[in-house]
Amino acid sequence: MTVVDEIPGEPSDTRGRVAELLALREQARRGPSDRATEAQHAKGKLTARERIELLLDPGTFKEVEQLRRHRATGFGLETKKPYTDGVITGWGTVEGRTVFVYAHDFRIFGGALGEAHATKIHKIMDMAISAGAPLVSLNDGAGARIQEGVSALAGYGGIFQRNTRASGVIPQISVMLGPCAGGAAYSPALTDFVFMVRETSQMFITGPDVVKAVTGEEITQNGLGGADVHAETSGVAHFAYDDEETCIAEVRYLIGMLPSNNRENPPVVPSDDPADRRGDVLLDLVPADGNRPYDMHKVIEELVDDGDFLEIHERWARNIICALARLDGQVVGIVANQPQALAGVLDIEASEKAARFVQMCDAFNIPIVTLLDVPGFLPGVDQEHGGIIRHGAKLLYAYCNATVPRISLILRKAYGGAYIVMDSQSIGADLTYAWPTNEIAVMGAEGAANVIFRRQIADAEDPEAMRARMVKEYKAELMHPYCAAERGLVDDVIDPAETREVLIASLAMLRNKHADLPSRKHGNPPQ
Ligand SMILES: CC(C)(COP(=O)(O)OP(=O)(O)OC[C@H]1O[C@@H](n2cnc3c(N)ncnc32)[C@H](O)[C@@H]1OP(=O)(O)O)[C@@H](O)C(=O)NCCC(=O)NCCSC(=O)CC(=O)O
């Protein structure tokens, strides 16, 4: 196919030229063939343009480089030069705010990335960075375009470099809507959020065939890198949905919670939910007995505007909850231990999950509210050998580095290192509150008594009675909020029913907080 073949006749005037342009545009818009579109639909997938229509406000999409074609030769490429080169790029709006987008067109070379395709993506990324607006990638591509060899690989490099440069400057959201292998999987890993759709999207560095050849393991594409695997086991995906429509609707919802760039604050949505609404239900929701589990989701629901929150990494590392929500219309990031999963302990995965979330909130001017009910870090050989020290340090580092408003509330227990890590006053929380059920201590009473009263217990006539007495004494002496309150380590002990009002008043006070870190190229965070 040549350009000349496609231009009808010899247009002699401007109207003729415009007709020619419209014909070319229509050809680019339609894509390769109806058969290819039917094949895409038959796989349960939408086309790139249908996806863009779902993502953006109706009629707002402005396409860039629609008439771009590759100039590669060899392997028959010189006769196959489709417009767009397999990726549709441009911008539009989501709820009236500018958003940039690129979408692989699987109908063209399986959405595989060649040189022209890559440079289109580079351009749209540069535009998004310059304009200070979020970038959404709708991924459905087979990785590097094999026929273009090293040029395709270099094209990926340019994307990765821009992803990294844009990190913390504009929100970057990757939506996985097809098989994404090799190079196609690295870019999403560099972005802020990864969305996947069950059954139709996969991410892996090497596919099942290579895995079988190298390790002998037999596995399906979904078993290796499907949405559930990445949302529950690897943590690569933040969100997983059953269909593309729901997935893209949730992307729009997320964008509504984020600022356009790191120089703006997140959008405020006025709320009818009264700022001083009491939460008496909290008095029964959280048992005073520190060993009894409860669902922290219900606490969050009670505190935030209209009970509405968006949980990130909902099914990975469930012992910690990370969510975006609004308090009196202002977006906040909530980090909360979940006593219902592994007693809310901090382990390797929970530390990694929360560290990335805290970092994201800090980058995008989202105040952080931390709800503590944590028995400590998870002991065990697996955890130690897996590097709990450096993974736990990631969370510590993220909090210590965060300059956004930070408020922490200790609901019940807060023991040892986990207490310090979860945004204690000593690592820079702006305000710390405690409920009367709070217990801040180096460790739980039983463990503490066994260590510090070991001799008295061993020498006693009735060791068990002595142990019980010592535990009781330790609890009475240390395990209540007033030790911390007396030392100024919590700013106030509050009635749980007043928590929403206290948080909202504290956030209002901190709205104009400004803090600078020491001048440096960048820190060297634990990895
Ligand atoms: C992505 C797939 C699972 C999709 O399978 P499907 O059965 O749905 O579709 P399909 O195989 O018919 O492919 C659709 C069309 O896309 C073409 N096609 C597929 N992969 C291509 C590629 N990488 N480069 C160029 N064209 C490619 C096919 O030839 C076909 O063209 P036509 O329609 O003309 O017949 C499979 O195509 C696949 O495994 N592709 C190879 C993936 C890969 O190894 N990529 C390189 C990664 S390495 C990399 O990126 C760098 C690195 O990290 O090392």
Automatic annotation (TrEMBL):
<dbReference type="InterPro" id="IPR011762">
    <property type="entry name" value="COA_CT_N"/>
</dbReference>
<dbReference type="InterPro" id="IPR034733">
    <property type="entry name" value="AcCoA_carboxyl_beta"/>
</dbReference>
<feature type="domain" description="CoA carboxyltransferase N-terminal">
    <location>
        <begin position="14"/>
        <end position="270"/>
    </location>
</feature>
<dbReference type="InterPro" id="IPR051047">
    <property type="entry name" value="AccD/PCCB"/>
</dbReference>
<dbReference type="Pfam" id="PF01039">
    <property type="entry name" value="Carboxyl_trans"/>
</dbReference>
<dbReference type="InterPro" id="IPR011763">
    <property type="entry name" value="COA_CT_C"/>
</dbReference>
<protein>
    <submittedName>
        <fullName>Acetyl-CoA carboxylase carboxyltransferase component</fullName>
    </submittedName>
</protein>
<dbReference type="InterPro" id="IPR029045">
    <property type="entry name" value="ClpP/crotonase-like_dom_sf"/>
</dbReference>
<feature type="domain" description="CoA carboxyltransferase C-terminal">
    <location>
        <begin position="274"/>
        <end position="523"/>
    </location>
</feature>
